Fold these 2 entries.
Entry 1:
Amino acid sequence: MKRIFLSVACLALVLGSCQNNANEIKPDQEEIAVDMSDFYVYTAEETTKSGHIHGPQCGSMKVLNRQLKENPSLENRMFNVEKHTRKLIAAKSTNATSKGKPGGGGTPAPTPYQGSITIPVIINILEDANHPVTQAHINSQIAILNEDYNDMNPGTGGVPNEFNNAVADVDITFVVAAINRKASTKTSWGTNDAMKHSNLGGIDATDPANNLNFWICEIGGGILGYAQFPGGELDTDGVVIGSDYFGENPAGGQYGHGRTATHEVGHWLNLRHIWGDGGCRQDDFVADTPSSDRANYGCPSYPTVHCKTNDMTMNYMDYVDDNCMYMFTNGQNDRMRAIFSTGGARESFVN
Ligand SMILES: [Zn+2]
């Protein structure tokens, strides 16, 4: 949704007539101002208006609400992550016009990270004999992530013409760094992050500043998975996936094709749900995704109209069946890449 307002504010040069002040602001230095007025972190527990009896498949926003209550500084940290992201994305447009061109004057401002990104992945499995996670599940899950984050999902051919130009090759590769297994008799871990702590029966995160930690366990409550957004505490950073929804697994039914992980890693990379977890005016902070006021389920026929525009139901950040989601947009790609730039919440992954 196009809500990003950007302006370039030239800072005034205020100097005494004859003084050579070391802190002087040069006339060509600029600060990119971004509008943060639409930023939100708290959401209603249940925001979908679809009328479906589905619960929230993804627990990320519920978990975020809990973490915000437990940790008052989190909201401010997420605000700063967002502001940094918006500045870099705004700079990309500004550099593309006049200021970044050779001879255009001024130094190009930092933009979202360029180039390929490789993410080492730690797979932490809380083993439940009734819901085994095999090496084949792991291999297929990594293959699906690498397809989806490199624009190689075979379903992408079905993208409607109006969204064709928005399809992004995110160019992120996921590589397994370690697999940790721990037997457990717990059949419902919930969403309180217990699986991330060895003293609560879980497995501690491995070097989360440099690895994406997955926890695979029975979550319960109809939740397929949940992720922690950038800006959160390091010891709980990562993604949780229900055992049956990890990789290619017939036990997962329409969610047994590995796209819960694609969706949750999107949150871990700072993407919001495509409908913005609210009404038509509540944004997902991405310029090239249409406005919507609800999640879509199943395998919607095109067009599906909400908020007077066609929903991008095939986006990984909606709630549709695994085989019916097959794209990220260029705007989402910029947003994900901003956190890897200097000063970004996940810059340690590329440095
Ligand atoms: Zn989600």
Entry 2:
Amino acid sequence: MRKPENPFLISGYHCPDYFCDRKNETTRLLNNIQNGQNVTLTSVRRIGKTGLIKHLFYNLPAEWKGIYVDILATENLQGFLSMLTTAILNAVPEKESLGKKIWTFVKSMRPVISFDPLTNLPQASFELRQVDTEMHISSIMQFLEKQDFNIVIAIDEFQQITRYPEKNIDAWLRSVIQHMINVRFIFAGSQQHIINEMFSLPSGPFYRSTAVLGIDKIDKCEYHNFIAEWFRRKGIGITREIIDDMLLWACLHTYYVQLICNRVFATGQKKINDNIWKEEAYKLLKEQENIFFNYRSMLTNPQWQLLKAVAHEGVVTAPTSKDFIGRYKLGSPSTVLRSLNSLIKNELLYSSFTTDGSVYYSIYDILFRRWTESFPLS
Ligand SMILES: Nc1ncnc2c1ncn2[C@@H]1O[C@H](COP(=O)(O)OP(=O)(O)OP(=O)(O)O)[C@@H](O)[C@H]1O
Ligand SMILES: [Mg+2]
């Protein structure tokens, strides 16, 4: 594969050179799947779940095969079957002996196989009734289970199955999966609250069926060194202070760190000073401004005031406390609570836990946070 020109990737995965740290997470994932444990990956958005799965697959031992299925675009079980089959065909080239077997098996299910005009990769699709679709998925699983290879299937954007019109798909899928020994599963999703409900609540269909691995921000020191090393390798001068400032601006949140570094690198400047990186940060906010104005117009005044207050604080642990409400003139605790719930529902705020187990709230989109905090508090 060609090397990326810009070493700070803002989509996809290339190889370990362009991937920062995640050593512990990768070891833990490997350990879980090698010991027969399925895993759920959870984190706030854009921290690096998908990247971690790709990194794990890159590092799988030779006797393992990784199959990555992104089901975000699927709308029903038939779509799921098509994606799964396509992912299997793409994971194992037809030339390999396992590939030959897989192709023969897949063709026996009579899918329509087409080739993507851009990538030339195969795509499978099916037109089936629900019972037949279920049967096909079960038989694919049984087929994989019988192979000499160890297989790990990562299903990304897994929360999507809760939107399928078919009833009880989650319970059915769990029953298919739980009898498998040679095939391991990794589930990941970007809608954390749905994933948590499915896997971590006693009422959830997948409760206790997997090890839940929460992905946090990358270690600051590791990220700092990664960035410094890439600028050095490319012959670009940048001080430790500027890297620290960029990490702070991006709240150490993977995607935003990658984004600002990518833009700074793309300026082509050989020596990065304060003005250069701040100008790039400003441009990033400007590019999104129409979207942000749109968010603002969708919010009620109490919601907007609360959002600004959270942006100014960064992290809020007691949003209904007298102190917080008083400082930002937010009205009554019940108003704040109502606004909080609707901001969470609309994914403008998220809640998570501090290391000592208490809940905190913060803004999802760091660019939105940086833009919002530039508004005066009224
Ligand atoms: N360890 C890493 N080092 C460098 N870049 C990374 C790393 N992990 C992820 N990235 C980059 O950060 C961005 C966001 O990562 P990714 O898409 O994996 O996040 P995600 O948690 O799956 O997001 P979402 O919740 O929206 O699905 C991507 O551009 C990816 O290339
Ligand atoms: Mg993802």
